[in-house]
Amino acid sequence: MPAKKTTIDKPVFAVKRSRAGAGLGLFAVTDIPKGAFIIEYTGEKIANAEADRRGGRYLFNINTKWTIDGKGHHNTARYINHSCRPNCESRVAKGMVTIHSIKNIKSGEELSYDYGTEYFKEYIKPLGCRCDKCHARRIA
Ligand SMILES: C[S@@+](CC[C@H](N)C(=O)[O-])C[C@H]1O[C@@H](n2cnc3c(N)ncnc32)[C@H](O)[C@@H]1O
Ligand SMILES: [Zn+2]
Q1: What span, in angstroms and rounded, lies between the C-alpha atoms of 101 and 86?
Q2: Which end of the chain has fewer CB atoms < 10 Å from its terminal CB, N or C?
Q3: For residue 82, which atom of ligand 1 is closest to its CA?
């Protein structure tokens, strides 16, 4: 008889309301070590010209030819907010976008990565960045 499986596959994140003005965010529900794979950013792979035509906040540019349109709700990675002092990073390899921790993350902390200059200038800067670093700078 096969051994009874006792491992519980706990999710490592949950979608919750983020800082005021930043909408929903993705939060760790367990401690996550530095260097861990967190999640893939999934969606329809479209040509950059089509991405320009569609526009939107959930477009992740992969390279000079392709973009992932991650607007679908199945793409849980779409809830990860931007930070100027992030605890995760995005990596692009073989046409896939994956998110990895770059710090030890405590349970309850919000996951974040740097969206990059272009996205920041277009969507974050006009209304003010709500990340911890910018928030601390504002109240200092
Ligand atoms: C990929 S979505 C992230 C999830 C989003 N908060 C939601 O509720 O669906 C990116 C959008 O979230 C908001 N956002 C993400 N990071 C932010 C930040 N640091 N400051 C302000 N708004 C942020 C902006 O509206 C941005 O265009
Ligand atoms: Zn910021």
Answers
A1: 9
A2: N
A3: 16
